[in-house]
Structure formats: structure tokens, C-alpha cells
Specification:
With 180 residues, the protein is mainly α. The chain is 56% helix and 3% strand. The protein has a two-stranded antiparallel sheet. Strand 1 and strand 2 form a beta hairpin. The two termini are 26 Å apart.
Length: 180
């Protein structure tokens, strides 16, 4: 989930003077999100179609479970496990650089988040961490996560992944003291 800074008054007035409209999601993106988006007073559109947010909107999970899922994702992301968004440089030499391994921890903050993430993985177990990594962190639809667990039908796959996600989020709530 990306957090976008609100435009300052100066940027809004420049955009109004230049006649440019703010960037909006494409019709295809809106169609894919269905009803899972919010339109603010200023016209800003916030997409709410990640599996975690959809589960909260459909009352599959509770607010404390949602908060635990957000915290899990935050630790995963800041631990550097999300990977980098980069393009391929066709001019570079395709060789491994052992002097700069990207898997090494770069900062103390990254080390802290990686430790919290590992504690969470230990608390939820192998299957729970698999479901949370794919559904919450990588935002793969719950039915696809259920298929990876071995379920064949769409309904059973969704239900199995949702139940595994709820039990893993309950374990995280206990670990971090979220909710009652």
C-alpha cells in the first residue's frame, strides 16, 4: 500500500493555473477494483482493493487483525524483503558482484524490522507466514493463495486462505498485544 503525500497549496494552485487535472486511475484499474475505492472531497481516489483491506471491508477479519496485518507488512517492507523496483540495464555485465551482496542488511533500522518480522514468522508458523506473505505483503488474491495451499475449487481455496489468515493474524495480535 503506497502512501501519497497531499499536494501543497502551491502545487494545487500551479496545477489549477496550468489547466492540468490530477492523475486519476484508468477506467480499467477502477473496473478491477470494483467498489473497493474511496473518493475524497478533493477528488483524490484511494484504492482499497488489497486482500487485507477487502477482508476488513467484508468483515472477514476484525479491526485488530487488520492492524496486525498492517504491522506485519510494515516490518516485511522495511526489512528490505519487498525487493526493488528497477529496470534491466542491458549494457551491464551479467556477473555476480560479491563485493556488494544485496541481501546484507544495510542499516540498523532494517535489522530491527527484520528481527520483528522473524519473530512474527516464528509466532504464526510456516503455513501462516506463507499466507500472510502472499496475501498481506505481496497482495495476491486469497483464492490464489488457497490454490497454492492445495485447494482445487475457488470457494474452498478462498475459505481456506481466509481461515489461515485469520488464525495467523490472531497469533500476531497476541504477540504484539493488539486488541483485547
Amino acid at each position: 500500500m503506497m502512501v501519497q503525500a497531499r499536494p501543497t497549496t502551491a502545487r494545487r494552485s500551479r496545477a489549477a493555473k496550468s489547466g492540468k487535472r490530477p492523475a486519476l486511475p484508468t477506467p480499467e484499474r477502477m473496473r478491477r477494483a470494483g467498489a473497493d475505492f474511496e473518493r475524497g472531497d478533493t477528488g483524490q481516489v484511494t484504492m482499497r482493493d488489497s486482500p487485507l483491506e477487502r477482508a476488513l471491508a467484508r468483515s472477514v477479519i476484525t479491526q485488530p487483525q487488520y492492524s496486525a496485518g498492517q504491522k506485519y507488512r510494515r516490518h516485511w517492507y522495511h526489512a528490505g524483503l519487498a525487493g526493488r523496483l528497477e529496470s534491466i540495464d542491458l549494457d551491464r555485465v551479467l556477473a555476480t558482484d560479491f563485493a556488494n551482496p544485496s541481501s546484507l542488511i544495510g542499516t540498523e533500522q532494517q535489522l530491527f524490522h527484520r528481527q520483528r518480522y522473524r519473530e512474527a514468522v516464528d509466532a504464526v508458523g510456516k503455513t501462516g507466514s506463507h499466507v500472510l506473505d502472499w496475501a498481506v505483503c505481496r497482495e495476491v488474491a486469497l483464492e490464489h493463495v488457497g490454490y497454492s495451499l492445495g485447494w482445487a475449487s475457488r470457494g474452498q481455496a478462498y475459505a481456506a486462505a481466509a481461515e489461515r489468515m485469520k488464525s495467523a493474524l490472531d497469533a500476531l495480535c497476541l504477540l504484539w498485544g493488539i486488541g483485547e
